């Protein structure tokens, strides 16, 4: 289910209100019966910059991400609901697009970030009731954290968040950008050289994002399906390394990738966007 509203520049009003849109999508997890799966994403894209998004926290399994394409600024909030047994799960995605001509962005003030994220948590609560999900909900949002920015890096040896445990040293991995560990369905660790250029990206996909990543690599790119071959790790056609891990409570396996910007460029979908900015 998808619902969207948009705002267009005012005509004959003497005031330009700027362009913008809000799109809310509720998906069942796992996805069932999509036609033309080879040419469609299973779930809405989590629009992120090249740096790690932030876990939503406050009892929610979710993430807040931002992206700036140069012509507009986008903020995406996702909330994953762990429904009662045998009922599947629900993924709520809220994508906000604000044109750069407004002079401000969705992340300029804590109030605006939280207002956008609040749409996702309220929609998730309503969806849980409507579809009989009966999920344990988080707390009312008091704040929404900012994603990591370019100045917030640490030495790889000092990582404590999503980069913790990744062995890295040398000139090609002298800096690490990480978010805090939290209950998020999508996590990244970005490694960079002494100049601040991105050299490696480690990504953890859980739930719908693991399903979506496997779909992209197997059904679109033509890599072997690890669920059929029994493989637990390997190298994708674009040069990225991958591995899988079992999750508790009969949850779907997690899917992890380790890549370079060049790998990501080779493996991106025709309708996707490349977001390596540094």
Explain the layout of strands and helices:
Layout: E1 2-7, E2 20-29, E3 54-57, E4 60-68, E5 72-81, E6 89-99, H1 110-130, E7 175-178, E8 186-192, E9 198-205, H2 208-220, H3 226-229, E10 233-235, E11 241-245, E12 254-259, H4 261-267
Description:
With 278 residues, the protein is α+β, with helices and mostly antiparallel strands. It has 2 domains: 1-30 and 53-147, Bacterial Protein-export protein SecB; 150-278, no CATH class. It has helices spanning 110-130, 208-220, 226-229, 261-267, and strands at 2-7, 20-29, 54-57, 60-68, 72-81, 89-99, 175-178, 186-192, 198-205, 233-235, 241-245, 254-259. The strands form 2 sheets. The chain has a 6-stranded antiparallel sheet with strand order 1-2-6-5-4-3, covered by helices on one side. Strand 5 and strand 6 form a beta hairpin. It starts with a strand and ends in an 11-residue tail after the last helix. The relative contact order is 0.15.
User: Which class best fits the helix and strand makeup?
Assistant: alpha+beta
N- to C-terminal separation? 36 Å
Shape from CA axes? Answer: globular
Order of helices and strands: EEEEEEHEEEHHEEEH
Question: Quick one: how many beta strands?
Answer: 12
Number of domains: 2
Poorly predicted residue ranges: 269-278
The average pLDDT is 82
Sheet with the most strands: spatial strand order: 1-2-6-5-4-3
Classify the beta-strand content into a percent band.
25-35%
Percent of residues in helices: 10-25%
Task: Please summarize the sheet with the most strands.
Answer: 6 strands, antiparallel
The DSSP helix count reads 4
Rg, nearest Å? 19 Å
